[in-house]
TrEMBL record:
Residues 1-72 are annotated as: Disordered. It comes from Pedococcus bigeumensis. It is a multi-pass membrane protein. Residues 63-72 have a biased composition (Basic and acidic residues). Iron-sulfur subunit of the cytochrome bc1 complex, an essential component of the respiratory electron transport chain required for ATP synthesis. The bc1 complex catalyzes the oxidation of menaquinol and the reduction of cytochrome c in the respiratory chain. The bc1 complex operates through a Q-cycle mechanism that couples electron transfer to generation of the proton gradient that drives ATP synthesis. Belongs to the Rieske iron-sulfur protein family. The chain crosses the membrane at residues 79-100, 120-140, 184-205. InterPro entries: QcrA_N, Rieske_2Fe-2S, Rieske_2Fe-2S_sf, Rieske_Fe-S_prot. Gene3D superfamilies: Rieske [2Fe-2S] iron-sulphur domain (2.102.10.10). Its main location: membrane. It is found in: Cell membrane. This is Cytochrome bc1 complex Rieske iron-sulfur subunit. Residues 287-356 form the Rieske domain. The lineage of its organism: Bacteria, Bacillati, Actinomycetota, Actinomycetes, Micrococcales.
């Protein structure tokens, strides 16, 4: 072994020729050709120590709450106050949710004109979450054990005795966190953890909007409603409907609708006249008028308008996925992915010869979701 100078800095030692560094007499444990630069950085191959010295942990500095029970009590109250603040904010959130009109706005310093509802919900939810989080951090910093421990590397699967020890330590976690000794924290924490989820759930459930009630299964059609052309909205006399013709029809009451598009999307109807002898089911003949029949225009597959009428075959075709309905068989599905026939609207004529609905639709129109009856 010999020592020599290098351009990098202090000479550490030389290799033994087998790639294994060995001591050169220096007490730092570096061997072979490694060169130690400033701040202990080592450069060169084969010169790294087999094991770095364990720097150890800094000495544990006891906290005020470790030394003084009064200090611990004070910290406990602070933690409880933060958890209590969180619970209170959640209660205020719920009160604000029900008490403040969402349309109400007002001037808020620093913000300007804003929705009081949004501001109240935002501030109370922030306080609820903040109280919970800050309380937990303060609790960990002041009262929970803060001694650091080192676990040496080991095979991934721990020894059985270690696993048992971990289980027992986890089971005893509440004890070490002093939950038993500090019931104030225990109960305030329970409140702070149990209530904030309500602040998230409430707007989610409330924000789903009003219940649909029967709006999905009913249309505007009612007994006595005149059939009017779409889009002209002129009434139709029975003698104007010739064999082979087709009319796109809406209820006359659509003019009073506040949601025209939604109502039209459900109430649209196709009106056709067939030779009564071509109509096979007696029910279809009874629900029509001298061969004039009316069927929902909304495809029972996924709701496209069934817009194509083939007058020779009396087939109605939905252009979306080619579902085909046979008008001579009560609009039974004869091809395509639809599962239900188109619902028939029962019609008749009024005293002036105009076509009117004799009853609302007897079943829901449109796609067959939610098992709304089958063919
Ligand atoms: S929507 Fe009519 S076939 Fe698909």
């Amino acid at each position: 072994m010999s020592e020599h100078d290098t351009p990098h800095g202090e000479v550490v030692g030389t290799s033994d020729g087998h790639g294994n560094g060995h001591s050169d007499g220096h007490s730092d444990g570096y061997g072979s050709t490694a060169v130690r630069l400033d701040q202990g950085h080592v450069e060169g191959s084969g010169g790294l120590p087999e094991r770095f010295a364990n720097p150890g942990l800094p000495p544990h500095v006891p906290r005020m709450s470790d030394l003084d029970e009064k200090g611990a009590k004070r910290a406990e109250k602070q933690v409880a106050a933060l958890f209590g603040l969180s619970s209170l904010a959640t209660v205020l959130f719920i009160v604000a949710y029900f008490a403040i009109d969402p349309e109400q706005s007002g001037y808020i310093p620093g913000i300007g004109n804003a929705s009081l509802y949004n501001v109240a919900l935002g501030v109370t939810m922030a306080l609820a979450l903040l109280g919970c989080g800050v309380g937990a951090v303060h609790w960990a910093k002041t009262l929970m054990p803060d001694t650091e421990s080192v676990e040496e590397r080991h095979p991934q699967r721990a020894k059985d005795e270690d696993r048992q020890r971990v289980v027992s330590e986890l089971m005893g976690g509440g004890e070490r966190a002093q939950l038993g000794r500090r019931p104030l924290i225990k109960f305030s924490l329970a409140g702070a953890l149990a209530l904030p989820p309500l602040a998230i759930l409430l707007p989610l459930v409330g924000g789903l909007g009003p219940m649909p009630k029967d709006t999905l299964s009913t249309t505007m059609w009612k007994k006595g409603d005149r059939l009017v052309r779409d889009p002209e909205r002129t009434p139709i006399r029975a003698d104007q409907v010739t064999i082979g013709s087709v009319f796109h029809v809406l209820p006359e009451s659509i003019k009073d609708s506040e949601h025209v598009l939604e109502d039209k999307a459900k109430a649209a109807v196709l009106l056709m006249r067939l030779n009564p002898d071509d109509i096979k089911p007696q029910k279809e003949r009874d629900w029509g008028h001298e061969g004039i029949v009316a069927y929902s225009k909304i495809c029972t597959h996924v709701g496209c308008p069934v817009g194509l009428y083939e007058q020779q075959t009396h087939h109605l075709l939905c252009p979306c996925h080619q579902s085909t309905f046979d008008v001579t068989q009560d609009c039974k599905v004869i091809f395509g992915p639809a599962h239900r026939p188109l619902p028939q609207l029962k019609i008749t004529v009024d005293s002036q010869g105009y076509l009117i609905a004799d009853a609302p639709f007897r079943e829901a129109v449109g796609p067959s979701f939610w098992e709304r009856g089958s063919a």
